[in-house]
Design a protein that fits this description.
Helix content is about 40%, strand content about 15%. Helix 2 runs antiparallel to helix 3. The chain is an alpha+beta fold. A four-stranded antiparallel β-sheet has the order 3-4-6-5. Strands 1-2 form a two-stranded antiparallel ribbon. The chain is globular and about 50 Å long. The protein is built from six helices and six strands, in the order H-H-E-E-H-E-H-E-H-E-H-E. About 15% of the residues are buried. It has one domain.
Length: about 170
């Protein structure tokens, strides 16, 4: 059930990135600790531009794996019921296991973000910049085009900056 007055208050007081951070903060499974991830990101805002926590996205997706992740998320959100901590039955609040982080394409920045993957005990960490190792050529070219000069800067000396997407995945 949607509480419209609460939604209105949230929409007026929180940024979309803060709402995503709250979803990450709630999650804890296997080696993943959402509070640790958000604490580290909040203490290093100069390293990243935005992030999204969701199920893995595969593109191109001939087997429908990405849609399956979306479907699982929709089902979990539809079936979630708040339960006391002592209950034997617990529902996943937000069943994500993959963090996508957008950052400026600078070696030092990317290196520090890759180090976070080790600290956070991610099972897999990868960098997507549209390079030759990224997917099929049509998709790779699209990624490369979108990430080139994708980050705007208010500083005229820096002009537009290129970006990378760093993916952290926990099993």
């Amino acid at each position: 059930m949607l509480d419209l007055s609460r939604i209105q208050t949230l929409a007026q007081t929180y940024h979309a990135q803060e709402m995503m951070a709250a979803l990450v903060w709630q999650r804890r499974f296997n080696e993943f600790d959402g509070a640790e991830v958000i604490t580290d990101l909040a203490s290093s805002p100069e390293l990243w531009e935005s992030f999204l926590f969701t199920k893995p996205v595969y593109a191109p997706d001939p087997n429908g794996l990405s849609f399956n992740g979306v479907l699982e998320t929709l089902l979990a959100m539809a079936n979630y019921r708040p339960m006391p901590e002592t209950s034997m039955i617990q529902f996943f609040r937000y069943p994500a296991d993959t963090l996508y982080l957008l950052a400026e394409n600078q070696d030092i920045t990317v290196s520090r973000l890759l180090d976070f993957g080790k600290k956070w005990r991610a099972d897999e960490v990868s960098v997507c910049d549209g390079g030759p190792e990224d997917e099929e050529w049509e998709f790779r070219d699209y990624i490369q085009l979108r990430l080139r000069q994708a980050l705007w800067s208010n500083d005229m000396r820096r002009r537009d900056r290129s970006a990378v997407v760093i993916t952290y995945w926990w099993d």
